[in-house]
Amino acid sequence: MDFNAAKIAKEWSAGVERQIGELRAIPRPALGDLVGGISVALVLIPQSIANAGLAGLPPVVGLFASAFPLLIFAVFASSPYLQTGPVALTSLLTAGALVGAGLEPNTTDYIAAAGLLAVIVGVTRLIIGATRLGSIVYLMAEPVTIGFTSGAGLVILTSQLSKAFGVALPADVAANNNPIWRGVWTLLHPGEWTFSAVIFSALTLAFMFLGRRLHRLFPGVLIAVVLALTFSRVTGYSGAVIDPIPSGLPTFTLDLPWGSFGSLLAGGLVIAFIGFAEPASIARSFASESQSRWSSSREFIASGLANVVAGATGAYPVGGSFARSSINKIAGAETRWSGAVTAIVMLIFLPFAFVLDGLPDAVPGAVVIGAAVTLVKPRRLWRFRTRSPWHASLVYLTFIATLVSPPNIHYAVLLGIAATILLHVTRPFSLEVNSTDSGGLDLRPRGLLWLGTNARLEGRLNEAIRADDGSGPVTVSLDRSTAIDAATAAAIASGRDAAADAGRSFVVSNAPRGAEVVLAGFDVEVTYPNADPQN
Prior knowledge:
Structural class: mainly alpha
Strand order of the largest sheet: 3-4-5-6-7
Number of helices: 23
Order of helices and strands: HHHHEHHHHHHHHHHEHHHHHHEEHEHEHE
Helix content: 55-70%
Shape: globular
């Protein structure tokens, strides 16, 4: 393979110039951006406090992470709908990285290290975006991503049970670094539950989930916070409440514990990749629905800058939120200005954040539980066994490793990636080619479809289509595949182009559940002649 440094440098420079040109083209704000931005801010205030607690940080750190980082992200992002800020999965990974480095939650050193971790995440994403290597996010095959997020969802959920039930854990139980153990202990000791905390949690979850049936923009979390605060103030509630929130705006500083860089690097790198996988999926989905452009490299740059600013303003790593992005879109947002509106609302709120003092701790605990439930995908986990035992072993290995590895849950991801590579080597990719009696062509990929096989998939599809002298339809059967990401969908779309050049129709058959949405973004038709897509 020839290595032309001058050509590579020229292409990279041209790519950077294109991105700068896109950034200069700032769209005009629309009325929907104002409504969307304010709607998101009303949800973000309680969520930022809840997620900060999950990360082992004071509430004010979560509020700081929801201010200036959002403003920077809005300026540089490519998606008009994607909203960033504190999210549950990134918060859990943050806690794992910091506790794994020997730091004690809610201490001065811990808070400072969280800022350094955000800078590490930000610089990593900046490098990836600037070098236009956004597709590196697909290094994690979909089975690894699904196994990890489902396992992490259970870890997050159980970590909040003691808050939700108002349980004061014994010292030996509280010292256990695995949240699942603490959650199980809480469930097995109902005599320790606090009645008022259980009621607060139940009402919060009811407002969150039942309120959505009334309207998708129903501010269930906000209503739960207002009611709980009112009750707490009127009755002089004596149960556990959130830490007092100092008022004022964050200050910029890079006086961070740089000596801890080495101990935080591995955790920061994992957050940089995993924390980007969800927002990338969100942005791709929205871009497909609206037939608009989306750039993974530019999104990496925007998220990288947001995280650097988060670290410099006393916050912690931030990522994209599916729930808040959906609210933003449903509320009528049309441009990136909606994210700026959210940031401005948060900055206006910060001097008055003391109004949240006295909020029962059970409410943010329930908010995190509500978010964690959406991460767990039991039906998707179960479906893996029906398509491929090898892929099922990959997803279940990552899932179990995530459950047993806290606080160092990033090791579960590394194990999943290593297992992916091993599976890739021991069961290499192949393409089964069959001609039908009617002159059609039936192509069946075998093996794991991921970043390591996409180039071969594209090449084999094109070769098979061009070598076939039939004129019937080309069908790519994915009946043995378990998940499809955007990079794989792009490789399949190249086969559609080859079929079109030959004057033949092209269709994907029996794709795994969810893949039809990704493939539709590349104008690839999907059919299910032998099975319902739910199966």
